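Re: that chain you flagged

S.,

Sorry for the slow reply, it's been a week of failed gels. I finally had a moment to sit down with the sequence you sent. For the record, here it is as I used it:
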Amino acid sequence: MGTLATDQSIPLTETPVREIEGHTRDIFAVAFSPDGLRIASGSTDKTVRLSETETGKNLRVFQGHTDLITSVAFSPDGGLVASASPDKTVRIWETSTNVVRTLAVDSSERAVVAFSPDGRFIATASLDRPLTLWDLATLTAVRTFPAAEACFPSLFRATGNGSLQTAVKR
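Prediction finished late last night. Pasting the structure tokens below so you have them in one place:
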């Protein structure tokens, strides 16, 4: 069972204030919903769980990955959760229905996923693969940054003028 401290004044090394129920193995990835009411957690048990922040109560279980979950992210409106795995997929789950869409990606260990601030794009990357931007509506790749310019997608944002700022690995 994994644990999570939700009070910023409590160091993570102290006694946890909340336990996330349901995982049968270690939690590897976690993300808060934009409103802070839910937590998505990804585990080495190959599941993503959606839980209430206040109670830790399990709301949904998303199954389908064939390897551990290395990254989870909420869409800006909280209606979707994306999960990345070394199984070479990113799965995009509707939080209210369990409906899933799957992206086939060229990922390896430590695959990561992030939504753009406007929710129109998903970024995927891994330690030894380039960053790719995907159109969420069509699930098509719109831009791939060469490996020499690859970055982790948690470090990107839309600028508002149609361009994208990224933290580039040099």
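What I noticed first: The mean pLDDT is 77.

Talk soon,
D.
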